Structure formats: C-alpha cells, structure tokens
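lol ok so funny story. i was supposed to be doing the assay writeup but got distracted and ended up predicting the structure for this chain instead. priorities right. anyway since i did it might as well share w the group, maybe its usefull for someone
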Amino acid sequence: MMIEKHKGMKLIRIISLISCLLISQSLLSQAPEWSIKASDYQYSMNITGSYFNNCLFTGEVDDIVGAFVGDELRGTAMVSEEVEGKALAYLTVFSNEAVGETVTFKYYDQTSGVLIELAATTEFLEGKILGGRMVPFQFFEDEPANVPELFFEDGTILITNEEDNYSSYQWFRNDQLIPGATQEFLNTAQIGTYSVEIVTDGGCKVSSQDFLIESGVTGIEDMIFDLSVYPNPTADLVTIKSDILSSQVSEVSLFNLSGQFLPIVSRKIASNKIQVDLSQLEPGAYFIVLQAESLFQERIVLKK
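and the output, tada:
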C-alpha cells in the first residue's frame, strides 16, 4: 500500500514538473505583439542594425527588435535578411520631438524565445540615418569594450581612444568600404558619413558610431584637390587628370568593390595626367584611388 502511494506521489511530481516546463516554454515562445501607428507622430529616423553580442553578430532572420522612449514603443521591425553574416533589421523610430529623446532597444530572439533588454542607445534626431548594410548599427546586449570614438581635426578623422590596442582598421564612407583606407586615421576631402571597423588584439571586430562630415567644417577646404577620370565608362584606357600630380609625389591604385587591390599598368602622359590600362579587367565597376602624400580621393570607373 505504501509502495503504491509512493508511486502515486512520484507520478504527480513528474506530471507537475512537465506542466511547469510546458508553461515556461509557452511563455518563452510568445513573441512580443508590438505595433505602432506612424500617423501619431511628426518625426522619424531610420536605423539599419544587427544584434551584436560577445564580439559577434549573432541575430537571425525573424528575430524582432523594438525601439522605446522610456516604456513607450516608438518603432519595431523584424529581422528580414542576412548580408555577409549580419542579420539586418530595418527599423523606423518615431517621435513628436525633433531632437533629444533617448532611444533604447529590446530584442526578441525567436530561437530561444527570450526577450533581451539591450544596452545600446541613441539620441533621436529627425531624419537621422544610422547604420547601413555593410556597417550596421550594433544592437548590443552588453556594451563592447574598445569602441572607437571619432573626431575631426584639420582635414583628418582621428580616433580619440587610440591608446586602446587595435590590430587593424578599415574605414567606410556612406556605408561603402574606402579602398586602401586601413590606417588609424583618415584624411578626407569629402563630406559624408564615416565609420571605422577595428579589430582588437583579442580578435574582436568592433565598429564606431557613424560620424558626419558636413560642408563648412574647418579643414575640409584645405584637403580638396581636383580629380577627373575619363572616358568613363571605358573599354580599355582611362586617363586620370589632377594638378596635384604636378606638385606632389602621388600614387594611383585600383580596387574592386569588395576592396581587393588589383595590379594595374599605368604611365604618365603629361605633368598632370596618368593613363591606366583596364583592358584586362572583367566588365564592372572599380575604384580608382589617387593618393598624394597624406591626401587621397577616389572615383568609380566603369569598365565596359
């Protein structure tokens, strides 16, 4: 009799445990039912971002991200595609204040069924665009160490915390890789949105926040030099013309759109002109970069 009673109590405990597990699993698997009415707001900004944790982009398609000001939902998006190992969400954030509100984020991991409070934040600014397909905004769970911070001085973008140990650099402009821009600083004569992707000595790849260079910024005018590339498109020969070729030691380089350096044959045909032979290349788009001492500019040339 005692044995049967013991067996009965054990069975009840097992059933209770299974029930608790099923209830817990049900709660975990419930995706947030976030929705927002855009017409309730006057202003918006856009973010292209990816979930980032422990030095890796680990999000997946069908995850969900939400933007909040305080406890109020201000935007939501589902992760919709993967680009070069980064699962991207295209998020619009809304506000009735043109500037100044602090935006925080929550991230729903559909695989584990867990809703994560993120450490990532940004300040709302009407019309602001954060991140891109190549360098997405990082929806990080814990703020990564060694994030590069940028400032602009005398025509050069510098990293304020360069004392941190970075083993490599790659600069981007308007979410496009800048060929050959792999130093700890960037001389630039062009307005645009810049960022740098660094690799720490520990092997962690981290991106800076976007940094905007606008017209009228002190130092820009001193960095600009003339540059023309013609004919463009071309089937074989292309001419690079710049007065800086006459006054400074210069170098012409060619890269594909992935940033891979390509060998070229070139010759100087005048004091301010260099001719480059592209006849051996496959049809497509390429970067031609002219570097003169510490200055550089790039142009896209189309090979027919």
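The helical segments are 2-28, 220-223, 244-247. The CA atoms of residues 80 and 280 lie 38 Å apart.
back to the writeup now i swear
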